[in-house]
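Could you please review the protein record set out just below?
***
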Amino acid sequence: MAHLARQESNKPVLIGQISDIEVIPKKFLEAILLDLKKLGFVNSKQGKGGGYYLAREPKDISLASLIRVLEGPIALLPCVSKNYYEKCDDCPNEGVCTLNKVMVELRDSTLEILENKSLESLK
C-alpha cells in the first residue's frame, strides 16, 4: 500500500514491479491485493498501462483500517478488542481484572495513534 501511495498521479503498478521492489513473494502479494480490492482499498486496471492503484487518496486511508483488514484486531488481548471481542478464558471477572484495565489503556493509545495516521504518512 505504501508503494502504491508513492506513485505519481495514482498510476497503476504491476504486481511484479511491486513484488520486486518491495521483496514480497508475488503469489502472496496477489492474494493481499485481491483482498484489498474486495474491501475497496485498491482498484485494478487490465491491459496496457494496467496494474493496481489506490481506490482512495492516501490521506483518506487510516493505518488502523489497514491493520484491521490485513492483520486483524489491534488490541493485544481479545477481551479488550472493540471489534473482535471475546471473553477471556483465564479471567472470571473482567470488571476487576487489573491487566484488563491496562490493556484497554494500551489499546486506546494505540488506536488513537493509528487512526490519526494515514497511508500518506508512510510515503
Residues 60-122 form one domain. The mean pLDDT is 93. The beta strands are 42-45, 51-54.
